[in-house]
Write a structure and sequence with these properties.
By secondary structure, this protein is mainly alpha-helical. The chain is built from 7 helices and 2 strands. It has one domain. The radius of gyration is 15 Å and the shape is globular. The model has no long low-confidence stretch (mean pLDDT 82).
């Protein structure tokens, strides 16, 4: 019975307007879905899940640093796809807290991309 309650709780957090938020969810080591549900605000869960899955970004480490998780996820994805594997914008954001001038556009861009991908 407890497992059924847990599944209902997870389903309620993985749907938006009765459509699945994350379609290709599989059980993995460490259960990343619970970490995403716990640490990311609802509109950014797909973005956080994509960064966690594709880049192996540790959301809990970003949270421990006291930084905004969706911002860090978007900056990491932007750095990785622009040919900078050392992730300079993410490192600067984690060190100083300054995400840069165009962070809103970057977050919106990757949020839309994550929504289309998953």
């Amino acid at each position: 019975m407890e497992e059924l309650t847990r599944l209902r709780y997870m389903w309620a957090h993985l749907t938006f307007r009765n459509k699945p938020v994350i379609k290709k969810a599989r059980r993995e080591e460490g259960d990343p879905l619970e970490e995403v549900l716990k640490l990311c605000p609802r509109p950014y869960r797909m973005l956080c899940y994509m960064a966690m899955k594709e880049l192996k970004l540790s959301l809990s480490a970003v949270a421990e640093a006291g930084r905004d998780i969706p911002t860090a996820a978007a900056l990491a994805l932007e750095d990785a796809t622009s040919g900078r594997p050392d992730l300079p914008r993410l490192r600067r954001y984690l060190a100083t807290g300054d995400p840069g001038p165009d962070v809103r556009e970057v977050i919106d861009k990757w949020r839309r991309a994550a929504r289309q991908m998953y």
